[in-house]
Amino acid sequence: MADTTTTTEQMDGSTTPQTGSADQSGKATEAKTFTQEQVDKIVQERLKRAKSEKPADYDELKAKAARLDEIEDAQKSELERITEQATKAQESAADWQSKYEQLKAQRQRELDVRQAATTYGVDADVLMRMGGDVDENAKFLQGKEASRPKFGDMHDGGEQTAPAQSLDERLSKAKNQQERIRIRAEFNAQKRNNKR
Predict the structure, then answer these.
(1) Cβ–Cβ < 8 Å for 78, 84
(2) In angstroms, rounded to a whole number, what is the distance separating the alpha carbons of residues 92 and 98?
(3) Which has the closest alpha carbon to 153: 195, 196, 190, 192?
(4) Which residues pair with 160 in a beta bridge?
(5) pLDDT tens string 107-116
(6) H/E stretch holding 153
(7) Which one of 40, 60, 131, 154 is least enclosed by Cβ atoms within 10 Å?
(8) How does DSSP assign 173-185, residue by residue?
(9) Dist CA 178 CA 98 (whole Å)
(10) What is the pLDDT of residues 7-61, one digit of tens each?
(11) Strand pairing of 28-33 and 160-163?
């Protein structure tokens, strides 16, 4: 004989399972009827029992879950450390790039000032201190130099000599490096004397 469960529908619309045995011909020999409340109670008891009973490998699974949590935490902290290092490296690279760009611009300005000072015959130090466009400033200084009256060296007796040559003119006529150094030193000394 096999156990069977059947459901009967009550007049209120609820269903109740029935259990009983059937012989091989399929006829029910004994049937027991449960109300919905009884079925709910049985199900609740079975659920409670299933929840209270731990699986055989529960402790092992719990240990594995704890180990997995540790590994994930370690990976998170390693990832955070690497992310922080990458962020610092990017900031450092940006700082160095900015410094490089500033030095590059400064070097280019120095080259432009030297070239303009030579081209227009003006003082490179003064030109370097001026802000703005180098060529425009050089032209401005050249115009100021041209509009300034040139006085020759005065000797006793009021005799006037030829106007003094500019530093660039004197340097271009120098024959060697030592002579250029001497000319620049004389020019700087004369400049200091004129300021006094």
Answers:
(1) no
(2) 10
(3) 190
(4) 154
(5) 998 998 898 8
(6) strand 152-154
(7) 131
(8) H--SHHHHHHHHH
(9) 39
(10) 554 544 555 555 555 555 555 567 788 899 999 999 999 888 877 777 778 888 8
(11) unpaired
Amino acid at 84: E
Instruction: For residues 65 and 72, give the distance between their C-alpha atoms in angstroms, rounded to a whole number.
Output: 11
Tokens describing residue 73? 């935490």
Nearest 5°: the CA angle 66, 69, 74 is 130
Residue 20 forms beta bridges with which residues? 4, 31
Could you tell me if 145 and 122 are in contact, meaning their C-beta atoms sit under 8 angstroms apart? yes
Determine the length of the chain. 196
Separation CA 43–CA 48 (nearest Å) = 9
* Ramachandran category for residue 174: left, alpha or beta (phi over 0 → left; psi -120 to 50 → alpha): beta
- In whole angstroms, what is the distance from residue 167 CA to residue 35 CA? 119
The residue with tokens 């130099």 is: 145
State the alpha helices, DSSP H only, in 15-158.
36-52, 58-120, 124-129, 134-147
